[in-house]
């Protein structure tokens, strides 16, 4: 009887081999990455000391610097985020409609829309900002357009997915009555996706506030330019003031967005 008993094993030999190959590949990738970036452990030894020294230089923050310089740049940052988000509405809506397969039946147009969405998301906001600074010159306009172009992929993709998940019943009823396509969209699709759309836009505005705060590092306007100047001049107390102001605005935007979303959804 004992000779007929079989030992239970969680994984088959093929699964164990696959797990070994996967783990070995991850370890090898980490090792190659560490060698590629020339990671030097000795630089980490005095990191706590350097960090403590930096915080000592930043304390106390220069409160007088806020009303004279930081406040105006912070307001400009909010304007960049808001105008960029508004521009996204007009750019992302048609792309989302083209990407939704239940609205646009052309495979070519669907692929073209998805190409735009992927292109928008694949380029970082700072890279977009660098591009538009070269086109429009340094300033808030370049930052606003960069925020808008970066947001197309996010808003358009989620909007298209919301359209594709819309209940078909009201749509079929409207089409059966001979309603034109515009009425089918405004009376059938839009009431179903409207809460999701505004929730997406609010969430994207919250993200844009965070991203627009650093666009000034590449000359695209906003409080990032003040931060870059303070860092280049080693005025660490002013840097602390800017960082605290950015943190306060981001927290306030998060609270406001969550409150408004609760009212909408």
CATH class of the largest domain: Mainly Alpha
Q: How many E-type strands? A: 0
The main pleated sheet reads as: none
Which oligomeric state applies? single chain
The helix/strand series, from N terminus to C terminus, equals: HHHHHHHHHH
Q: List segments where confidence is low: pLDDT < 50 over at least 5 consecutive residues.
A: none
- Helical proportion, percent range: over 70%
> How many structural domains are formed by the residues?
2
Mean pLDDT score: 83
* Percent of residues in β-strands: under 5%
Class by alpha and beta content: mainly alpha
CATH architecture of the largest domain: Orthogonal Bundle
Count of alpha and pi helical runs: 10
Specify the CATH homologous superfamily of the largest domain: MetI-like
Based on Cα principal axes, name the global outline.
extended
Radius of gyration: 26 Å
Kindly report the CATH topology of the largest domain: MetI-like fold
- Terminal CA distance reads 65 Å
List keywords for this structure.
single chain, 265 residues, mainly alpha, MetI-like fold, 2 domains, 77% helix
Structure description:
The model has no long low-confidence stretch (mean pLDDT 83). It is extended and about 70 Å long. It has 265 residues and is mainly alpha-helical. It is built from ten helices and no strands. The protein has two domains: 8-44; 58-264, MetI-like fold (Orthogonal Bundle), CATH 1.10.3720.10. The longest helix is centred in the N-terminal third of the chain and has 35 residues, at 65-99.
Q: What's this entry about, in short?
A:
With 265 residues, this protein is mostly helical. It has ten helices and no strands.
